[in-house]
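Before relying on records like the one below, remember that each one covers exactly one chain. Contacts with other chains, cofactors or solvent are not represented anywhere in the record.
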Amino acid sequence: MADTEIVEGYTPNFEAWIKDFNEWQTRIGFDPSWLGDYRFDIKFDWDTAGSQIEFGDFKGMPKWERRMQIPQQNIRDAIISMVSVQGDTEFASVEQQNHLL
């Protein structure tokens, strides 16, 4: 899947999330002016990210798109552990990122 296809597929979902978030703020009585000029935006820069791993033992290899592309089981286990820990510290992170597992 090309990077532009990923962004095109992600953008409508992100925009829907922003709409839902703004509606939720209104329902709970949050004043958006408290955020100042802050804007929710896609911050990841696909143009400079590249398609190769940039450092470490796997430098120069294609970036992993699926779990089974990760060459070592201990790395797969560590990533699953990190997602789980993140889920314990951030609301609903594991459920949101379950497709990565």
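The two ends are 19 Å apart (CA to CA).
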